[in-house]
Specification:
Order of helices and strands: EHEEHEHHEHEEHEEEHEEHEEHH
Protein name: UDP-glucose 4-epimerase
Distance between the termini: 21 Å
Strand order of the largest sheet: 3-2-1-4-5-6-11
Pfam family, one: Epimerase
CATH architecture: 3-Layer(aba) Sandwich
Largest sheet: 7 strands, parallel
Keywords: Carbohydrate metabolism, Isomerase, NAD
Helix content: 25-40%
Subunit structure: Homodimer.
Radius of gyration: 19 Å
Bound molecules: nicotinamide-adenine-dinucleotide, uridine-5'-diphosphate-glucose
CATH class: Alpha Beta
Family: Belongs to the NAD(P)-dependent epimerase/dehydratase family.
Number of domains: 1
Number of strands: 14
Shape: globular
Structural class: alpha/beta
Strand content: 15-25%
Length: 362
């Protein structure tokens, strides 16, 4: 798979949380495009095996100021992509202080070090969770920011820290508010592996695999088309492409903020039905009460990202998201470190899915 290469000289990019689900996919794309990547991660929820072999790896907890300064002392970074965070909406309701302290504290540590060492640009993983629910209409960058859970609140605070840091110190910043990241790298050897898993699509696929008896549906009394929550699922490869485009845009601009999603909303029931179609297996459901802090509906309007950076989601149709995730889970039933099994029947070969379309235009 050959890609368009960035302009010389090669840029050094520090990817925090690059052993995690989204960060590892972005790190892989950066390596494929010829960037020099350093991943720093404490492996609290990530996996060493997810880090691309050509990236440098530093095992460090970013809550410690000393360790992050050491990382910056060893190499001059042109850019930082900050993925490392606590990420679970449900859990954040039971640990609000941990979420704010760790997410804001980690961001402050990495950002201060980046400023002190003259790093030019900084991209933050933000989230749709900063917005309030909107059923029947999508969410652009002008929507009210009003987080419904401590996780979203912590990311809103991170966004504000970046705003003031850019004003005071001139570091160029971008926030990418992803909606629900899903899917896996075509090829079947990189994907989502959270332990315990709490995300809808991997859990649904574990039911299809016979590894769980059923999927719990958290609430059927929301004001949505079928009463279950509606989300916008965006393929990790399309997120990776958005990061590369943003990185390049930051060479000539700053203070960027984009909502990143497919623009299509699917209810929990629709996800279950789509996964039954893709896998050809039954997926039993059990109705449960609402999960605290879940907004009814979050669907992105990514028109700004499309217009300004030429981004186009190429893998985020639901069928491709579920099919690539299904290949990953089928080949690696125990996640990273488990044996590599053949492609599942009917899933197609890796070449059945197009390679990522990162053609950053300078
Ligand atoms: N997955 C989604 O749907 C989604 C949507 C919107 C935003 N985001 C954001 O994207 C980022 C990545 O999310 P993900 O789903 O890949 O999560 P993940 O848990 O798979 O990845 C997070 C990574 O950060 C590392 N990490 C966490 N705390 C750390 C610390 N103190 N020091 C060093 N490393 C640390 C973990 O080990 C892990 O590898 C997060 O900031 C998350 O809030 C994710
Ligand atoms: O067993 C389950 C798991 C989830 N859900 C529902 O499925 C939807 C999606 O849930 P989940 O996959 O846990 O993702 P979210 O809670 O929407 O959060 C994800 O998406 C956010 C952006 O929207 C990110 O910021 C978060 O980091 C990421 O975890 C929600 O309505 C859940 O209530 C169920 O019904 N049953």
């Amino acid at each position: 798979m050959k890609h368009h290469h960035p302009i010389e000289p090669v840029e050094n990019v520090l990817v925090t949380g690059g052993a995690g689900f989204v960060g590892s996919h972005v790190a892989w794309l950066l390596c494929e495009l010829g960037f020099r990547v350093t991943v720093v991660d404490d492996l609290s929820t990530g996996h060493r095996a997810a880090v691309p072999p050509t990236a440098s790896f530093v095992l460090a907890d970013l809550r410690q100021v000393g360790t992050i300064n050491q990382v910056f002392a060893e190499r001059q970074y042109d850019a930082v992509m900050h993925f490392a965070a606590r990420t679970l909406v449900g859990e954040s309701n039971t640990r609000p202080i941990d979420y704010v302290r760790d997410n804001v504290g980690t961001l402050c540590n990495v950002l201060q070090a980046a400023i002190d060492h003259g790093t030019r640009s900084f991209i933050l993983s933000s989230t749709a969770s900063i917005f309030e629910s909107r059923d029947g209409s999508d969410i652009d960058e002008n929507q009210v920011v009003s987080p419904g859970n401590p996780y979203g609140e912590s990311k809103r605070m991170c966004e504000r820290v970046l705003f003031w840091a850019e004003r005071s110190h001139g570091i160029r910043t971008a926030v990418l508010r992803y909606f629900n990241a899903a899917g896996a790298k075509p090829g079947g050897d990189l994907g989502e592996d959270h332990r315990p898993e709490t995300h809808l699509i991997p859990l649904v696929l574990q039911v299809a695999q016979g590894r769980r008896p059923h999927i719990d549906i958290f609430g059927n009394d929301y004001p949505t088309r079928d009463g279950t929550c509606v989300r916008d699922y965006v393929h990790v490869l399309d997120l990776a492409d958005a990061h590369v485009r943003t990185l390049i845009a930051l060479r000539s601009s700053g203070a960027l903020a984009y909502n990143v999603g497919s623009g299509a909303g699917y209810s929990v029931r629709q996800i279950v039905a789509a996964a039954e179609r893709v896998t050809g297996r039954p997926i039993p459901t059990i109705m449960r009460p609402r999960r605290m802090g879940d907004p009814a509906a979050l669907v992105a309007n990514s028109g700004k990202l499309r217009r300004e950076l030429g981004w186009k989601p190429l893998h985020s149709d639901l069928q491709t998201i579920i099919r690539t995730a299904w290949i990953w889970h089928s080949r690696h039933p125990g996640g990273f470190g488990s044996s590599c099994l053949p492609f599942p029947p009917g899933a197609g070969s890796p070449s059945a899915v197009d390679p990522p379309a990162a053609q950053p235009s300078d």
